[in-house]
Structure formats: structure tokens, C-alpha cells
Amino acid sequence: MAYYTLANLVKAQIKLQGEFANNDSRYRKPVVFMLFLKGTNNFFPRAEELRTSEKRTTEANYFKRTATALSTGGRSHNHTGTAGDSGVMPISWVTYSTTFSTTLKQADSSLFNFQEQFNNEIRQKVIDFANGFDDISATYLMNNRSGVNTAAVKGVFNATDDVYRITESTFGEESMTITKVVMDINKYQGKKLAIVCDSISYTTFLRMAAQGAQNATNMSFQFMDTYFVHAAQLTAYASTLNAIYVKGFWLAVPEEHIGCIDWIPKQNRKPMETSVNMYSNFRNPVDGLLYAAHSYEARADGTSANGEKQDVVTQMELSIDLSFNVAPSSVADETPIQAFALI
């Protein structure tokens, strides 16, 4: 039942402690979301400062690739040329929020005091954000995989699914080397790669990476300049994309080619109060981001919320604006994110 009614002091009770008590509130660390946050401030400078209002649009500029053919006609005294060009990448924002409420007197008859109940409400919302943002991040990567791949090395790029297919029985043990060569051919050589794996490829690659120099088959050399991120969501995404992707599916993401910008209103960054409303913030201990907190009070009959008839209800909202982005390209349907699968 809600409102902590099972903890009312109508019988002898104890409080469970430590991790034993937290089992029901366990969650997976949002590793895919954290991948987006890594280094974001380095390539989106001043984004928070420039967006002064939710109504203000934001865009980013970059230099476009302007290819020209090389001449073999010798030097000229009257040569002419064309200028380069720049591109604009719009930055889209989504506000993510969640709410809860408390009453002033709800803890008066409870085993848990008001602060403990309030802390639990915050913890539950932190878990909601962690779970939600990791799913959103994995979905974004999947939806923004490249539709262009110029490589054809021990595999074939399927333009229908936008997946580079590698035959497991023939080249499965070379899959990570093939991944790196494919990324090299697509001009991402020398970049550290995040390999975002479904559960099947994650277990396969961990086993292969452990086959070192003392093993009969040394496969560990393939894994230099790569690191693995386990995105459990990809298993379902891959099988939904195509039923044949059940032997391992992964996304290769060059480091610093994806990013997520965060923003909250200035009234929350520098907390302020009115006669009814309070604008404040809190630092999420899981992802390290600053979230907006807004609350207001109202007179209420709190009996339905395990409070008292003469009570005060506080409504609380936690929110943050996020903008997920992938490095732009002037080539249609091309992104740095390449999808791979064993078939």
C-alpha cells in the first residue's frame, strides 16, 4: 500500500538496514547514458549559458567537408578556386520530469520519520531517472546508427537493416578486428571505440578478450583501444530489427562523437522562493547532473495520504532538460555509429 501505511505504529516493528533493505530498490547503473555524458562539455561549450529560456532555440555550427578533385595540369598563374562552407546542427531539447507528494503529518504515526520517507521518495525518483535515461540512450544509439558504410571486409553491410553482417562460423573469432578495420575504412582510424554490446556479444567478447598470450589461441590483441559497454536493451532491439540477429549484436561508437547536453532554468540554478513556490536543485548522485526541483504547499485533508485531517500537502517535481546528439555529417544518412551483427 502507498503512503507508508504498512509502517504505521500499530504493532512491534523493526527497520531493515543496509543493502539487505535496499534489494527491492536495486537498479542497473546507466552505463549507456554515462557514455553520452563523457566529455560533453568539451564539444558543447556555453550551451547552458546561451539557452536563457526554454523558449529560446539553440543550434551549433561546424565546418562541412567540401571535397575538390586534385589537378594534374601543373601550376597556373591565374588559378581560381571555391570557398568552403559551414553547416548548422539544430539542438533539440526534451524536458524529463517526475513528481511525488508528501504531507506534513504523514510520519507522525509511522516507524519511519519524515526525513526517512522523504529520502526514500528522492531515491525512488533517482532510480526512475537512471532506468529511463539508460533506455532512452540505448534507443537513441540504435535509431541513429549509420545508413552508410563503405567497407566490405569479411562481411557485408546490409542497407535495409543498416547493419554490418559477419558470418559467425567463418569470421566470428575475428569480429573485433573486423569492426576496427571497418571503422578505419569509414575514416575513424585512431579513435578509441566504445563497443556497446547486447548481452550475447558482451559475453562473447569478454571471453575472447581473456584469451591472452598463454592460451592456445591468442585473441586479446583485437581489443586494444576498445572498451565494452553492456546495453541489455540491445538484445530485444536487435531481434526486433531482424530475427537472424541472435548470435551477437553491437554498436561501435568513436569516442567523443556522441554527447548529451543538460539544462535547468536559472531560477533553479540559483534557488529562489515566492510566497507559495520554491525553485531549487539537487545533484543526482548517479549521473552527477544538476536537476531542477520545484515544490509548492497547499492546505489539505491528509487522511487519504496517511496524514491528518488538518494537514499540509507538498507537491514536488524533479526535472531536467536533455539534448541527445551525434556528430554531424554532410553525407545523407551517415553517422559515426556503426552497427554490427554475427549471423
For the report, how would you describe the main beta sheet? 6 strands, antiparallel
**Helix and strand element order:** HHHHEEEHEEHHEHEHEEHEEEEE
Radius of gyration: 26 Å
Overall pLDDT score: 91
Outline the structure in words.
There is one protein chain. About 25% of the residues lie in helices and about 25% in strands. It has helices spanning about 20, 30-35, 40-45, 45-50, 115-145, 170, 175-185, 200-210, 235-240, 265-270; strands at about 60-65, 85-90, 95-105, 155-160, 165, 195, 225-230, 250-255, 260-265, 270-275, 275-285, 290-300, 310-325, 340. A hairpin with a 4-residue loop joins strand 4 (about 155-160) and strand 5 (about 165). The strands form three sheets. Strands 3, 9, 10, 11, 12 and 13 form a six-stranded antiparallel β-sheet that branches. The longest helix is centred in the middle third of the chain and has 30 residues, at about 115-145. With about 350 residues, it is an alpha+beta fold. The chain has a domain at about 145-260 and about 325-340. The two termini are about 50 Å apart.
Topology:
Elements (H helix, E strand, L loop, with lengths): L17 H5 L8 H7 L2 H4 L3 H4 L7 E6 L22 E6 L2 E10 L10 H30 L12 E3 L4 E4 L1 H4 L3 H11 L7 E5 L1 H11 L16 E5 L2 H9 L7 E6 L3 E6 L2 H4 L2 E2 L3 E7 L6 E11 L10 E16 L11 E5 L1
Parallel strand pairs: 5-14, 6-7
Antiparallel strand pairs: 1-2, 3-13, 4-5, 6-8, 8-14, 9-13, 10-11, 11-12, 12-13
Helix pairs in contact: 2-5
Keywords:
flat, 27% strand, 14 strands, 343 residues, six-stranded antiparallel beta sheet, alpha+beta
Q: Could you write a compact summary of the structure shown?
A:
The protein is of the alpha+beta class and 343 residues long.
